[in-house]
From TrEMBL:
InterPro entries: TRI4_N, TRIP4-like, TRIP4/RQT4_C2HC5_Znf
Residue numbers spanned by region Disordered: 72-104
GO biological process, any: rescue of stalled ribosome
GO cellular component: nucleus; RQC-trigger complex
Domain TRIP4/RQT4 C2HC5-type zinc finger: 119-156
Residue intervals passing through the bilayer: none
Provenance organism: Callosobruchus maculatus
Biased composition annotated in UniProt, kind: Low complexity: 84-96
One MF annotation (Gene Ontology) recorded for this entry: zinc ion binding
Residue span, Activating signal cointegrator 1 N-terminal domain: 11-53
Name this polypeptide is given: Uncharacterized protein
Length: 158
C-alpha cells in the first residue's frame, strides 16, 4: 500500500491524465495493484499515448508504485534509420539549396525503369519520391512504381 505522500503524488499525476475528476476509489484501486503488468493493462485505455504529458505522468505513477521497472511498452519508439533518409534517384521533383523545385523528365525516367520493370511499393511516397495519386481509386504512387496503369485499379497514372 502506498504512503500518504505517495498518494498525493499519485493524485497529482492522475490529474494530468484525468483532469480534476480523480476519485479516491481510483487512487485506492491503483495503489492496490501488485504487478506492473496489471497496472499497464489498467492504464492502457486511460492514457493518451500520443500526449507526452500523459505518458510522463503514467511513467511517474508506475515508478512510484513499482520502483524501477523494465522498459515500458506504452509509447512506441521510432526506429532510427542509419545514414539518414535515402531518396530514390528517380525523383519526380526535388529542391535545391535555393528552394527551387527541379522536375525530372518522365522519358528519362521511363528509360531507366524499362530495365528494372515496375514494382509494387507501399511506401505512400514517404520512402521514395511522391509521383501522383490515382484519380479513380486514390492510391498513392511513388516514383519506384513509376507512371503507367494504376497497380490497384488499372487507371492511368502519370
Amino acid at each position: 500500500m502506498a504512503s500518504m505522500r505517495e498518494n498525493t503524488a499519485i493524485i497529482k499525476h492522475l490529474q494530468v491524465i484525468l483532469g480534476n475528476d480523480v476519485s479516491n476509489d481510483i487512487v485506492r484501486y491503483i495503489c492496490s495493484i501488485e504487478h506492473a503488468e496489471d497496472y499497464d493493462e489498467f492504464m492502457e485505455n486511460i492514457v493518451d499515448k500520443n500526449n507526452s504529458g500523459h505518458v510522463r505522468a503514467y511513467e511517474t505513477i508506475k515508478y512510484l508504485l513499482f520502483g524501477r521497472t523494465s522498459e515500458s511498452i506504452t509509447q512506441p519508439t521510432k526506429p532510427e534509420k542509419p545514414g539518414g533518409s535515402k531518396q530514390s534517384s528517380y525523383g519526380s521533383s526535388s529542391t535545391n539549396k535555393k528552394g527551387k523545385t527541379r522536375y525530372t523528365d518522365i522519358h528519362k525516367y521511363q528509360e531507366k525503369k524499362k530495365k528494372l520493370g515496375r514494382t509494387i511499393c507501399d511506401c505512400l511516397g514517404q520512402e521514395h519520391d511522391f509521383m501522383n495519386n490515382c484519380l479513380q481509386c486514390g492510391r498513392i504512387h511513388c516514383m519506384e512504381e513509376g507512371p503507367g496503369p494504376c497497380l490497384f485499379c488499372g487507371n492511368m497514372v502519370c
